[in-house]
Amino acid sequence: MAIWKEAEPLVLFTLRTAHSQREADMAAQFVQIIRFTYMMAGDYEAAAAFSNRLADVLGDDSFRKTPDQLRQEMEQFLRGDTSEEQ
Questions:
Q1: How far apart are CA 75 and CA 51, in angstroms?
Q2: Structure confidence at residue 37 (pLDDT)
Q3: Is the pLDDT at 86 greater than 70, yes or no?
């Protein structure tokens, strides 16, 4: 987990300063990896904090998630529930 916490600033910086779609796509993949890793480890506080920093970088509050929202998303994922309803 420590490696992902150290990678967060670089990933967010790359996302913010991407000079090409490829750079942005690669950074976005790492965003998903980091968040999913936190969630798989049950560290919903870290996942939520990262999501909030992501929202700040992108200027898009739709990326903000609470630990409870992320826990619920993970439970749905583990059940194989792909519906958007909660």
A1: 18
A2: 95
A3: no
DSSP sequence for 46-80: HHHHHHHHHHHHHT-GGG---HHHHHHHHHHHHHT
Tell me how far the alpha carbon of residue 47 is from its chain's centroid.
Answer: 6
Instruction: Tell the burial category of 62 from Cβ atoms under 10 Å away from its Cβ (0-12, 13-18, 19+).
Output: exposed
Task: Output the average pLDDT for the chain.
Answer: 91
Which residue type, as a one-letter code, is found at position 37? T
The tokens describing 81, both together, are 């529930």
Stretch 56-61: mean pLDDT = 94
